[in-house]
Design brief:
Aminopeptidase, four-stranded antiparallel beta sheet, 2 domains, 18 strands, binds zinc ion, Alpha-Beta Plaits, about 400 residues, six-stranded mixed beta sheet, alpha+beta
């Protein structure tokens, strides 16, 4: 018994010794910086910046240019691809470290102008500490706030190059900024994405990809009564396409594929239709699955049922999936180890059904870490979106520690 107690005492002593300790100077700095995050959140929330709101996005863009310049960044604007409203704000810092890091967050929200009047910024005391409310506060204004307040915790030796990209169309699938994020991510040591996490905080195993499937069918017009045999009926071919592809949907939790739209130019009752476009929605876990789907679709459509019909299929990747690679997995373990020094856990949650810009960054083949924003809830519901302020010191500490580990 005595031996057992002695063994237990030794085990306790060694495990206490082995318990990792935080970097106290950094923790102190993060804790001192944390209260200012609330004011930044208020400033960010009080500029309404729904996707497509040119005025709001411009106002917020100018505010961010000012903040990044104050932090010593060289700030520039990048035009999104045509059709997207709002310049992308890019800020860069040069340092003396080794790593090149890209930090991403988005300034647009899902809310229309007027949402703020119904749900103004407020801080209320919750069971787990203070909560800050406001439209878009968690998704993703808190992500921007975490980046802004991590900057003062860093010094030039923490990175060779630090780049921050804030885009304006994430809530519309980042069609105008996604390819730009991919380009900027190339050659980076890592990309850190500051989308919101849940409370208590977690990491995430991946985000989902969304894709549009477009099948255009060209036939030949003819009089539907006098000479239908002279025509090629695109609609009949479309029915065939649907019939031979509807089983490409693999069911819940797997690849999802469903036809959702049928378009026909100038349909007339007495004319054999010469064109039909079918549009389908495809959800995938990996880009490889998109390629696999393309191949299966091509195989199914190889032989038209209506002689002479031209069938062209296209699969557009709207938002690529983010699948945690071994390198990303290693980053998750780093984050968990850093959090453990604070006595906090960061369990890994399964892939989310939503998509994020981590998917665009991951195409560059570099390690990506998602969910570094503030923990919150009520995303996409006007009056109930909030973040947990209790976590702010830990989130700043985590972001700064990761940048140091990767950048020095
Ligand atoms: Zn978001």
């Amino acid at each position: 018994m005595k031996a057992l107690i002695a063994a237990a005492a030794v085990w306790l002593a060694t495990s206490a010794l082995a318990a990792p300790k935080p970097d106290n100077a950094l923790l102190k700095a993060a804790t001192a910086e944390a209260p200012a995050v609330t004011g930044t959140l208020k400033s960010l929330v009080e500029v309404e910046s729904g996707s497509g709101d040119a005025e709001g996005l411009e106002t917020l863009g100018r505010y961010l240019e000012g903040r990044f310049a104050q932090s010593g960044g060289s700030v520039s604007r990048v035009k999104p691809l045509p059709g997207t409203v709002g310049d992308i704000i890019v800020a860069r810092w040069k340092g003396t470290g080794k790593g090149r890091l890209l930090l991403i967050a988005h300034m647009d929200t899902v809310y229309q102008r007027g949402a703020l009047a119904k749900a103004p910024f407020k801080v209320v005391e919750g069971a787990a500490g203070p909560l800050a409310y406001g439209p878009g506060i968690a998704d993703d204004k808190a992500g921007i706030a975490v980046i802004l307040h991590t900057l003062p915790l860093l010094s030039a030796r923490d990175y060779a190059e630090l780049t921050v990209v804030i885009n304006t169309d994430e809530e519309r699938g980042s069609v105008g900024s996604g390819p730009i994020i991919t380009e900027m991510a190339k050659g980076m040591s890592a990309v850190l994405s500051f989308e919101p996490t849940v409370y208590p905080e977690t990491m995430v195993n991946g985000t989902s990809g969304t894709n549009t499937v477009i099948v255009t069918i060209a036939g030949k017009s003819a009089h539907a009564g006098a000479a239908p045999e002279a025509g090629i009926n695109a609609m009949v071919e479309a029915a065939h396409v649907i019939a031979v592809t509807k089983d490409l949907d693999r069911g819940p939790g797997k690849r999802r594929f469903n036809w959702t739209v049928v378009n026909q130019d100038r349909g007339v009752r007495n004319i054999i239709p010469n064109n039909v476009t079918l549009i389908g929605d495809l959800r995938t876990a990996t880009l490889a699955e998109v390629d696999q789907f393309r191949a299966e679709l091509a195989e199914r459509l190889k032989t038209p049922a209506v002689a002479g019909a031209q069938v062209v299929a296209e699969v557009r990747v709207n938002r690529p999936p983010f699948d945690v690679s071994p390198a990303s997995s290693a980053l998750i373990e780093e984050a968990q180890a850093i959090y453990a020094t604070l006595g906090r856990r960061l369990p890994l949650m399964p892939r989310t059904g939503g998509g994020t810009d981590a998917g665009y960054a991951a195409i560059a083949g570099v390690p990506v870490l998602e969910f570094l924003g503030l923990p919150g809830a009520g995303y996409h519901t006007t009056d109930a979106e909030y973040v947990h302020l209790e976590s702010v010191p830990s989130r700043l500490y985590l972001a700064a520690s990761l940048i140091r580990r990767l950048g020095r």
